[in-house]
Every structure is written in C-alpha cells, then in structure tokens.
Amino acid sequence: xxxxxxxxxxxxxxxxxxxxxxxxxxxxxxxxxxxxxxxxxxxxxxxxxxxxxxxxxxxxxxxxxxxxxxxxxxxxxxxxxxxxxxxxxxxxxxxxxxxxxxxxxxxxxxxxxxxxxxxxxxxxxxxxxxxxxxxxxxxxxxxxxxxxxxxxxxxxxxxxxxxxxxxxxxx
Length: 171
Hints:
By secondary structure, the protein is mostly helical. 68% of the residues lie in helices and 0% in strands. It is built from eight helices and no strands. The longest helix has 22 residues, at 2-23. It is elongated, with a radius of gyration of 23 Å.
C-alpha cells in the first residue's frame, strides 16, 4: 500500500512541476522529440517559405498581394478586387482565394526586404510557368497597382523588377 501512495505522490508532483513550468513560460512542446526533429530539420534548411513557392499560381497570388500592400494597408474594396482576381484570373475557388489571401499576407510579412529580392522570389516557380503566364503576371500587377489610384513609385519599381526578372528568365 505504501508503494502505491508513493507512486501517486510522485505522479502528482511531476504533474504539478510541469504545470508550474508551463505557467512560467516554458514550452512543454520543446520536450517532444518529434517536434524537436521537425524544428531542427527546418532550421537546417534555413529557407524563408516566401522564397520556396513552387507553383506559378501561388507566386502570382503572393505578388499581387505584395503590390496591393505597397500602397498601404488594404481597404475592403481592394481586398474584394484582389479576391475576384484570384477567383477569375488565377482560377482559385472562393474558399481557396480567401485562404491564399491569408497565406500571401503572412508570407509577405515574413521578409520586409522582399522587394529587393525579386529574382530569388521568382526562381523556384519558373519551371512551372508558361510564356503566357510570364506575360500575364506583370499585366495583373499593373491592374492591381492602378485599381484605386495611380501607382506609387514603390509599386512601379516592384512591377518593373518582376517584369525584368520574368523577361530575363525567358531568354
């Protein structure tokens, strides 16, 4: 009987200690070996997911969001226009359009210097792009930039950088 009481006390003490550690800010997931292995493998790659986009549709969606975001925080009308472009031009479903908008927002926020790394941004998805897509993407970027007002210099520079990167890769 005394052994059972000792085991119960030890388990209760362990649970109390883990609870106290969690309340003090210690992440109990860091003790999970599977979580640690995934995190370690990702750290080994050292790639920002923004620069690992492999499909042309997803790249176009992120680039369109980036151009819209350069004019400031998006308005409701700009968001609706962008979602309609995702649905009509990029052929996403309405649900996928909303998800892609959220994903693009998150990805653009991961690197504030993405505007200066356009060739790195475009490089992984070039293999999946047709020549028609390479000409359509800059046209869509210009359409987004001129939606609510005249494009600002940042939007113009970014659109030209994307166009130059796509044209350079065509040759």
